[in-house]
Amino acid sequence: MERTPDGTPVGVDDPYSVAGVCDHLTDDGRCRFALTRAGDDPEFAAARRDDDYACHVGPDGAWRACPHYRSTTDGRECHRCGLPEVRIAHDDSRPLVEEHHLSYGGADAAGPDDAAGPDDGEESGGDDAGPHEITVALCRWCHTKVHRSFARINDDASPGPEAIAARESRRSREQSESAFETASERFDRDDE
Question: 21 near 62, Cβ under 8 Å?
Answer without folding.
Answer: no
